[in-house]
Here is the input.
Amino acid sequence: MSNPPVASGQELAASNQQPSDNLFTHPHMKKLIIAIDGPAGSGKSTLASLLARKYGYVNIETGAMYRALALKAIETGVPLDDAEALHELAQRTKIELQPRLDGNRVLLDGADVTERIRQQDVTDGASKVSVHPPVREWMVSRQREMGAVGGVVMEGRDIGTKVFPNAEVKIFLDADPEVRGNRRFLQAPLASLHQNAVLAEMRERDKRDRTRADSPLVPAPDAVLIDSTFLTLEQVAEKAIEIVESRQKAQA
Ligand code: DC
Here is the structure.
């Protein structure tokens, strides 16, 4: 089999452009794995990017990897329900995540697909390709390589349950579906034809993500739950930072 097609943790760390406000004030602090899971629109990406900047960690958006594979399947005509063909496609695919201040830049076989993978057909496709166990196995193994050295904030659906069950910090971020749908709509109002359509699509995707047989979206038993329905970003961040700092003390 060929080399791992995703940049390793060290390569990611080397390309990490994120400034940190306390990396150098705590040089001996152990580099933790921070797992953030939750449904679409719960605020995972914003929180992950904020924590990564604060601690000088690498931010890895695992959803972008499923999105990139879905895009390649769409472009090459591989059916989204063919698990084996998708697994084989993944093995011939190079997905790179380059951390940036505002999230990950995503390269698919060297081409920048950062914007394209946020479009509706890919969003829907990513949820479909992610139900297949061979695809998940391939993704999980790449993600473990990327996070192995620690100092990462990894966000997705199965990070605390499957990718890093021993992560020092596990946060499950949730919010009322209406509120999540509205946030999604406000993020890209022009790309969406109708607010109700955004809500309906999100509910369908949520259902698929939560009920699939392999690694469904559920909180790890030891995850700290944060419900962001009535919280501002600052309030969510404050809670998350408290959790991280208590774990840092426990590890010191
Ligand atoms: O986080 P996102 O919306 O970019 O994720 C896109 C899809 O990928 C989502 O519908 C479910 C899937 N996914 C997953 O199954 N496991 C992950 N760790 C991340 C995403």
User: Anything to note?
Assistant: The chain has ten helices and eight strands. Residues 63-150+199-218 form a domain with the Rossmann fold fold (CATH 3.40.50.300). Confidence is low (pLDDT under 50) at residues 1-25. The two ends are 40 Å apart (CA to CA).
